[in-house]
């Protein structure tokens, strides 16, 4: 029977298809953000990508998106596992393709104090969850919180980087930090 099979890299082990598309190859997805602090976990993620790539009999397509939404800033780094595999990757990649280090956020007065409190809270929260700090919130999201000082969950949910899950996980804690 002809058709399309959607499978995770985990489920693809031992199977083959004529055509395989491996999508979402950006750092934070492949390798997944939770594995970045453990070298053994990063290597397991590399093995999973190898499994996915070797499932293709005839055609393989690897894809990634440097921006999450149409018109968004193109700041998502391509997966480190593609170095040397994808055109324009690896040590000879043009400088424009390499991730750009973001400038440090500098806020003054009450906004600056709140930003630093939020960073301390984020650090503790990330450490207790064993994830990198940016998984909790990015500096850009903390900056938006510090600048707007939301007082309700509804106001907080309107800020970039805060979806329903993060609102449920961290919303009350963030509002407590904002209120002092």
UniProtKB/TrEMBL annotation:
CDD domains: SF1_C_UvrD
One Pfam family recorded for the sequence: UvrD_C
SMART domains associated with the record: HRDC
Keyword ATP-binding: yes
Annotated segments matching region Disordered: 70-100
Keyword Hydrolase: yes
The entry's keywords: ATP-binding, Helicase, Hydrolase, Nucleotide-binding
Domain annotation HRDC: ranges: 108-180
PROSITE patterns: HRDC (PS50967)
SUPFAM superfamilies documented for this protein: HRDC-like, P-loop containing nucleoside triphosphate hydrolases
Gene3D superfamilies (UniProt xref): HRDC domain, P-loop containing nucleotide triphosphate hydrolases
Name of the protein: HRDC domain-containing protein
Species annotation: Blastococcus brunescens
Lineage per the UniProt record: Bacteria, Bacillati, Actinomycetota, Actinomycetes, Geodermatophilales
């Amino acid at each position: 029977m002809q058709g399309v099979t959607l499978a995770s890299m985990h489920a693809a082990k031992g199977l083959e298809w004529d055509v395989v598309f491996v999508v979402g190859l950006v750092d934070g997805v492949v390798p997944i953000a939770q594995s970045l602090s453990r070298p053994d976990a990063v290597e397991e993620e590399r093995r999973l990508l190898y499994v996915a790539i070797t499932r293709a009999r005839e055609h393989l397509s690897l894809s990634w998106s440097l921006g999450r939404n149409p018109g968004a800033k193109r700041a998502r780094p391509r997966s480190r596992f593609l170095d040397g595999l994808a055109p324009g990757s690896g040590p000879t990649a043009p400088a424009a393709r390499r991730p750009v280090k973001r400038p440090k956020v500098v806020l003054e007065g009450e906004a600056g104090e709140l930003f630093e409190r939020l960073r301390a809270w984020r650090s503790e929260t990330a450490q207790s969850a064993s994830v990198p700090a940016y998984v909790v919130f990015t500096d850009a999201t903390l900056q938006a919180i510090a600048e707007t000082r939301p007082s309700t969950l509804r106001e907080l949910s309107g800020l970039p980087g805060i979806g329903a899950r993060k609102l449920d996980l961290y919303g009350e804690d963030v509002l407590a930090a904002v209120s002092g």
